[in-house]
Amino acid sequence: MFSGVFELSFWSWLGLMLVLTHITIASVTIFLHRHQAHRSLDLHPIPSHFFRFWLWLTTGMVTKEWAAIHRKHHAKCESAEDPHSPQQLGINRVLWGGVLLYVKESRNKETMERYGHGTPDDWMERNVYVRGQKFGILIMLSLNIALFGLVPGVLMWAAQMLWIPFWAAGVINGLGHFWGYRNFNCADASTNLVPWGILIGGEELHNNHHSFATSAKLSSKWYEFDIGWLYIRTLEILGLARVKKTIPQPRFAAERKVVDLDMLQAIITHRYDVMSRYMKSLSAIYREESTRLAASVDAGELKRVKEWLHLEQSALRGEDKQQLDSVLAKSGRLAKVYEMKSELNALWERSNATREQLVKQLQDWCARAESSGIVQLQEFSSRLRCYAA
C-alpha cells in the first residue's frame, strides 16, 4: 500500500513535495505572470515549453485563461468587474474560494476574447494542453503513486493540486489586496505581504507589481527579495531569457531653470517617488500645524486628519470630508499643500490633456510652489526640477 519505486522518510518526502510545488510556483510567476500576462520578459522556447508542460501536469490551467483573467483584474481592479477583488467580494470569499472565482471567470467568453490575445496557439496548446486539460494532472497522480506509493503519492498529488489555488488564487488575490504594507500609493488596494518573496515566488510583493505591472522584477526596496527575479536573471545569464522592463529607479541631474517636456516625462516616470517625497513634505507641515491647531481641534479628529491628508477628496466619505475641510479652513498652509497635492497627482492622470498643456500646468505648479512662502513647497519644487528620465 505504501510501496513505490522510492522509499522516502517523512522529511525527505516533505522536502521533495516543497521542491516540486516551488517549481510550480516558479512556473506561474515566470511564465504565466511575467512572461505571458505582462510581457515583461521574453523566454527561450526551452524554458517556455518546460513551464507549459509542468503547469499542465500540476495545475491543468490553460495559459490563455490565466493571462486573460489576470489582465482583466488589472484593467478592472477593485471595481465590480474585477474577477477577484476582496474589496468587492469580501476577504473570506476570495481567500478561501478564489479558485471558484477563477473557474467562473474562465467561462466568460468576452473575457477570453478581449484579454486573452497573444498567448500560445500552437498544436501542443490546442491538442494537448487545452483539449487534454485534465489529462496532465491524472498523469501526475499516476506518477506519484508509482514512484512513492499509494498513500504518499496521493497526498503529494493533493498538495500539488491545492498549492496554486490556495497560495495564488487565495492568498495573493485575497490578502494581497487586503493586508500588508505599501511602497507605492497606486490607485488600487494592493499590498506587499512580506518583504521576502520566496514562498510564492516573489508574488508576495504585490503592491510593487500593481504599481509597475510590466516590470520583470517585483522587488523595489533594498531589503526586499524576489526569488522569481533570481531565477529570471539566471535564465538571462544562460541566454534563455531577455528582460524587457524593470521598476525605474529615480535619477537626478542638475536643477533645471526651465520647466520643459523632459522634466514632465521624468516626473511622470518617477511619479510614485515624486508623490512619496511630497507626502513627506506634507507630513512635516502637518506636524508643525498640529501644535498650533491643538488648541481648537479635538485630538482624535486631528489624528484622523493625518490619515485623510493621504487620500484624495473623492475617496473620503461625506462626514470625513466635512471634518477635513473644517480643519483645513483653520490652516492656510496645510490647505495649500493638500490642494497642490491633488494638482500634482493630476499631471499623470489627465489622459485627455496634450503634452503642451501638461507642461504649462507643471510650470504653473512650480511657480506657485516657489512663491507660496512655504519652505517645504519651495524645497520640493527645487527637487522636482532635478528629476531625470
Distinct helical segment count: 18
> Care to count the β-strands?
6
**Average pLDDT taken over every residue:** 93
Beta-strand content estimate = under 5%
List low-pLDDT spans: none
Helix content: 55-70%
Number of domains: 2
Shape: elongated
Question: What's the Cα radius of gyration?
Answer: 25 Å
Computed structural class: mainly alpha
- What can be said about the biggest beta sheet? 2 strands, antiparallel
Separation of the first and last Cα atoms: 65 Å
Instruction: Report the order of strands and helices.
Output: HEHHHHHHHHEHEHEEHHHHHHHE
- Largest beta sheet: strand ordering: 1-4
Q: What do you see in this structure?
A:
The chain has 389 residues and is mainly α. The protein has 2 domains: 10-243, no CATH class; 261-388, no CATH class. The protein contains 18 helices and 6 strands. It has a two-stranded antiparallel sheet with strand order 1-4. Strands 2-3 form a two-stranded parallel sheet. Helix 1 packs across helix 2 (45-58), helix 3 crosses helix 6 (109-115) and helix 8 (135-148) crosses helix 9 (150-174). The protein is elongated, with a radius of gyration of 25 Å. The relative contact order is 0.09.
